[in-house]
Amino acid sequence: MQIKELDLRNTPSSCTSHPVIRLMSILESLAGKDVDKIKVFFNEEDIPRGIMEFILKKRGYLVEEEGKLENGSLFFVVRRTR
To answer: What's the rounded Cα separation, in Å, for the pair 16 and 39?
Structure first.
């Protein structure tokens, strides 16, 4: 079982590097790899919690754990369901 960390908190200000675009791109690239779990760090101002859950669910991931860091950012630990 392989776990990958994905940090979407610090992103440049261009539209192609928006956290949602980066998330979709990385999830797409992980589809064929042997990664069972991903720990995703994100700011709720960039991607609201509900939207993050929706995107992950549509890509075949289930949230197993969630938490809030001291700096106010959130994290999800997700596992692949399919």
So the answer is: 22
pTM: 0.86
**The domain containing residue 32 runs over which residues?**
3-80
- Indicate the SS3 state at residue 42: strand
pLDDT, one tens digit per residue, over 14-23 is 666 789 989 9
Structure-block tokens of residue 22: 């980066």
Q: What is the CATH number of the domain that holds 49?
A: 3.30.110.40
Residue recorded with tokens 């992950």? 56
Question: For the residues of 58-78, what is the DSSP string, one character each?
Answer: HTTEEEEEEEE-TTS-EEEEE
SS3 5: strand
Number of domains in the chain: 1
